[in-house]
Amino acid sequence: MIDRQIEIATKDGHLTTFISHPERGGPFPVILFYMDAPGIREELRDMARRFASVGYYLMLPNLYYRSGVMEIGPLPRDPQSPERKRMVELMESLSIDKIMSDTVALLAFAGKQPEAKHGAIGCVGYCMSGQYAINAAARYPDRVAAAASIYGVRLLTDQPDSPHTIARKAKGELYFACAEVDRWMPLDQVEPLRQALRASDVNAEVELFPGVEHGFAFPARPAYNKEAAERHWERLFALFRRRLG
């Protein structure tokens, strides 16, 4: 495996991005991995390596670069702690338009790399970034062949770029993994999400993971559930294999 961290120029600055891909056998299909709210950390880099290990050119961008923040560090469980309040501020500093602009820069960079395969790409977003993965599929339908939201938040809003409505513009296959216990994406929103996607005739699946909490796929989180986490890996690998090869 080859890992490297590079700076990609955007219209707002320089986007620090962790890249991982196999050493031989390329070029490899590109997958964009949009981080969750706690930001870049070794836990996410390890997950990026797992994607790359099965044959992908994985890009994990630091979405907080506009704020000059690379890694937030350990977060106390107290929601009122200064660290968690800072995380919320950083999360709120983002917007779908900003991340879509970053996506253009990421794809432009990948397009010049001999290890990265041209053509269809995949996207995956966790927590705050589920909405970004789905919006990427909708905004760039001729590039994004597969996109996944893993316990994504803000999937049903009254905004025109809400995932449950903008998904109709996607041509690729979409996958939504929802946790049964999730105060940021309550259980009573799961079926409306599923129905909205069906009504739009979108190639999408909404899967409910019973008995687990938001964050179940992250090994360092208290909510980690190994069985559910491994199932989510199986579902993602199958999705990307179907759509990207």
3D structure, described in words:
- The protein has 245 residues and is an alpha/beta fold.
- Helix content is 33%, strand content 24%.
- It has helices spanning 42-53, 82-92, 96-110, 130-139, 163-166, 190-199, 226-244, and strands spanning 2-10, 13-21, 30-34, 57-61, 121-126, 144-150, 173-181, 204-213.
- The longest helix has 19 residues, at 226-244.
- The radius of gyration is 17 Å and the shape is globular.
- The two termini are 19 Å apart.
- The mean pLDDT is 96.
Instruction: Give the name of the CATH superfamily.
Output: Alpha/Beta hydrolase fold, catalytic domain
Low-confidence stretches: none
Which architecture per CATH?
3-Layer(aba) Sandwich
* Percent of residues in β-strands: 15-25%
Structural class: alpha/beta
Number of strands: 8
- Cα separation of the termini: 19 Å
Task: Give the H and E element order.
Answer: EEEHEHHEHEHEHEH
Task: Record the strand order, biggest sheet.
Answer: 1-2-4-3-5-6-7-8
Task: Determine the fraction of residues in helical runs and give it as a percent range.
Answer: 25-40%
- The overall pLDDT, averaged over residues, is 96
What kind of sheet is the major sheet? 8 strands, mixed
| CATH top-level class | Alpha Beta
Rg (C-alpha, Å): 17 Å
